[in-house]
Write a structure and sequence with these properties.
305 residues, alpha+beta, Ribosomal Protein S5, domain 2, Alpha-Beta Plaits, 2 domains, 4-stranded antiparallel beta sheet, 11 strands
Length: 305
Amino acid sequence: MPPTFNRKVTARIPASTTNLGPGFDVLGLALQLYSTVTLEPSETGTEVIVSGVDADKIPSTPAHVAFQAVELVFHRSGTKRPKGFRLQIENGIPAIRGLGGSGTAILGGLLTANALCDTPFSDTELLNFATELEGHPDNVAASLYGGLVVSAQEGDQVHTVRLECPSLLSIVLAIPDFPLSTEQARGVLPKSVGFADAIYNTSRSTLLIASIATRQFEMLRVAMKDRLHQPYRTSLIPGFDDVAEAANAAGALSVALSGAGPTIAAYCLEHTERVAEKMQAAFEKHQIASDIKILKPDAHGASVF
């Protein structure tokens, strides 16, 4: 029996911080910062409405990646689509800042369309679709499932393991007042890396997972070191070294780029306000304004209602 399109569906999706230093395109942590996506059928054609944080930087047309995700679900499920859609995005995540905003939009489109089609696809299948659209699984996996998620892609299938990230851990985000596209951040990466650097990152990313799983947070200072992407990407972020040094001196456990940047994430058990103050002041010394957010890990992931 075909679905009846007489309702609207809303999805609430958390932001994510990814890589966590050495876990390039593998590790993602969901954060208590959210966007919502609402989808309903329309008899008057399709409209995309964007409001909230950085709405001026996000396309309010069917070119929006959330609408592309909606179309993908209807196409692959074989569901006859209505005449049009009304897609509303209430954006709560700074755009193009390394906090998984595009991933939350993709998931919002997939989850709401899947619900309108009477749920033909499982979360695992939706994650595969999201990875196809996003290009890598780390942020969409974390935003979908919540917690700390480890992802590995085998062909077109994404395999994940989710770990609880303790609520006593806080993430202080220093979000500089300029965007950094993923394309630009990937453009500075080398085409190949040396064997020693590969071993270095394998050891750190493994230590990072073990440290969080066993609550040995004192290991994070070593475990979040990286040689694959941060040494290249930080050249695009004026003041990165000073901001990281200031955060560590103020009591942070460790510091890493959030995703591709330019946001810098400090991981703390205490002294969060002091860490935030020092990070912002360090950016100011380089004439860069920044917004500060002190967040907890999200344990629940995306929800649909």
